[in-house]
Amino acid sequence: MSSNFKSRLTGTVATAMMVALAASAAQAEGIVNVYNWSDYIDESVLKDFEAETGIKVNYDVFDSNEVLETKLLAGTTGYDIVVPTGSFLSRQIQAGVFQKLDKDALPNLKNMWSVVSDRTSIYDPGNAYSINYMWGTTGIGYNVEAAAKRLDGKPVDSWEIIFNPGILAKFQDCGIHMLDAPTELIPAALNHLGLNPDSHDKAEIEKAAELLKTIRPYVQKFHSSEYINALANGDICLAIGWSGDVFQARDRAAEADNGVTVNYIIPKEGALMWFDQMAIPTDAANSKEAHMFLDYIMRPDVIAKASNYVVYANGNKASHEYLDQEVLEDTAVYPDEATMENLYVTTPYPPKIQRVVTRAWTAVKSGQ
Q1: Which fold has domain 137-273+346-366?
Q2: What are phi and psi for residue 204, nearest 5 degrees?
Q3: Cα-flanking dihedrals φ and ψ of residue 256, to 5°?
Q4: What is the pTM (predicted TM-score) of this model?
Q5: Taking the CA atoms of the chain, what radius of gyration do you get in angstroms?
Q6: Residue range 130-156, pLDDT digits in tens
Q7: How many whole angstroms separate alpha carbon 204 and alpha carbon 298?
């Protein structure tokens, strides 16, 4: 064998070894594809995870459960972790779109809060398919000065402000936004009517829709996120929104020092308690990395960083010692016991009733 051939052979072997090592390193580094709600995590959490594990995070966002559900039910999502709300998660589990969690790969499950886990089990029995990421309430966000002027100093503490057309009309001139979320607004209307907010009765749902139609003329817009900046900038003065979103509006207004003061309340009659759950789709290509990401998120210091950023409560009891005091002690974020007892949860509508809800909501939004 010539020395020249030996040299070529050695070079070929060396190159092959380098390629193999590179492939091995790429496999060791891995990827996890995450699909979460927009503006819903401190980005340093993602960067820290990448630095600690060598796993690259591809992070995409959505702004409604309906958008996520369409992807999940279509089949190939391309994602390893998704974050549906509990009521959507429940029917998605039934549709077989998630894989059961390997709890042996999730030692940080020990940090989860039984108060929250017990409630999420209504959607995910035994919490077999998901972990809680964040939870919160759906209530009223408002411009403090504008409300005081229009209510003659009376407190903003009741759904009456929203569902009494005579009162709501006083806010029309300064702007009213509402969530484009029938599974949250219809239960709120049912609750105001003294009916079960989790009713699946067609006639009762239609009564709630009729109530919503009476206030429709005063609502400027239905959407899922615009009210954050609109409240913060003083473009609107009233919104039905998610607790953490309104807190973000409050903080943005304070940082801008623009003369706008935003507040959030859980109405005294009660409000929806919702849960955003992290789950792994059945077709996830990187299940091992997904479990590593979930376990990382359940570290108390990590989920606390996320909560401090988005100003939402999380389902991790051990995280409390890492939370900013203004977050942990804010009863609008972590309600007191009496308020917690007054919060309600809802369960998924069966297909026949879901069609009723969809038609009713379309009629509400169109004002017909």
Answers
A1: D-Maltodextrin-Binding Protein; domain 2 (3.40.190)
A2: -70, -40
A3: -75, -20
A4: 0.85
A5: 24
A6: 999 999 999 999 999 999 999 998 999
A7: 40
